TrEMBL record:
Protein name as it appears in the record: Cytochrome c oxidase assembly protein
Lineage: Bacteria, Pseudomonadati, Pseudomonadota, Gammaproteobacteria, Alteromonadales
Domain of life of the source: Bacteria
PANTHER family in alphabetical order: ELECTRON TRANSPORT PROTIN SCO1/SENC FAMILY MEMBER (PTHR12151), LINALOOL DEHYDRATASE_ISOMERASE DOMAIN-CONTAINING PROTEIN (PTHR12151:SF25)
Positions of the Thioredoxin domain: 41-202
Protein family membership: Belongs to the SCO1/2 family.
Pfam families linked to this entry: SCO1-SenC (PF02630)
Gene assigned in the entry: senC
Naturally occurring in which organism (per UniProt): Thalassotalea insulae
PROSITE patterns listed in its UniProt record: THIOREDOXIN_2 (PS51352)
InterPro entries: SCO1/SenC (IPR003782), Thioredoxin-like_sf (IPR036249), Thioredoxin_domain (IPR013766)
Length: 216
């Protein structure tokens, strides 16, 4: 049986080390962003049926309907890319909140390391970055059903006693109809991305966005 205090200490140490890397990177003189805008799909893509689990219970396709969702994949012990991506996403979330843009937007972190990441630890982990971030995970079969349909790859392997996880790093944008409409990479410009999402919200309210994507 796992010692809960030791698990909490381990999670805290992982987070401290991860955030140290994040803040060290942010303290370096910034370079021009390589991702200033969203890559919109020519045709929206349906998301395969899947069932994962969150702190509040089942998390499935129905939880992607009637609101916008940004999904990012990773795992708790990821040393740099995952915490950096979540930190950047928290900055975007705060910007959108301040500007009252897409107020029905959900942010979902999907752990692709269910062997080591418990749901309780995932929930605690994402809450460090933003209280509204949702943490989910599930079986490898369920994870593959979701990732394959939105173009995300991940793998886990054990070699010479070392367990490693690799995954694609994209923020996937799911529209209120539950389909994948676009994606963007880390190292994005918060101001520009927020403005683009504002434009999308305005277009969506007048059905221009839906018509635009259907015509491509």
């Amino acid at each position: 049986m796992l010692n809960k205090p030791l698990v909490k200490i381990g999670l805290s140490l992982t987070l401290v080390l991860s955030l140290t890397i994040v803040f060290n990177r942010l303290s370096v003189k910034p370079v021009a962003s390589t991702q200033d805008s969203i890559e919109w799909l020519q045709q929206p893509k349906s998301v395969n049926d899947f069932t994962l689990i969150s702190a509040t219970g089942r998390f499935s396709n129905t939880h992607l309907k009637d609101h916008w969702t940004i999904i990012v994949f990773g795992y708790i012990s990821c040393p740099d890319v995952c915490p950096t991506s979540l930190f950047e996403l928290s900055l975007l979330a705060k910007k959108l909140e301040q500007e009252q843009i897409l107020q029905n937007l959900n942010y979902v972190f999907v752990s692709v390391d269910p062997q080591r990441d418990t749901l309780a630890n995932i929930t605690q982990y994402v809450s460090y970055f933003h209280p509204d971030f949702i943490g989910v995970t599930g079986s490898l079969v369920a994870l593959e059903s979701l990732t394959q349909s939105i173009g995300i790859r991940f793998s886990a392997s054990e070699l010479a006693g070392s367990y490693t996880v690799s995954h694609s790093v994209y923020f996937s944008i799911i529209a209120p109809d539950g389909r994948l409409y676009g994606r963007f990479k880390p190292n994005f410009d918060v101001e520009k991305l927020a403005q683009e999402l504002k434009n999308v919200e305005t277009a969506n309210e007048s059905n221009l966005f839906k018509n635009m994507t259907n015509e491509k």
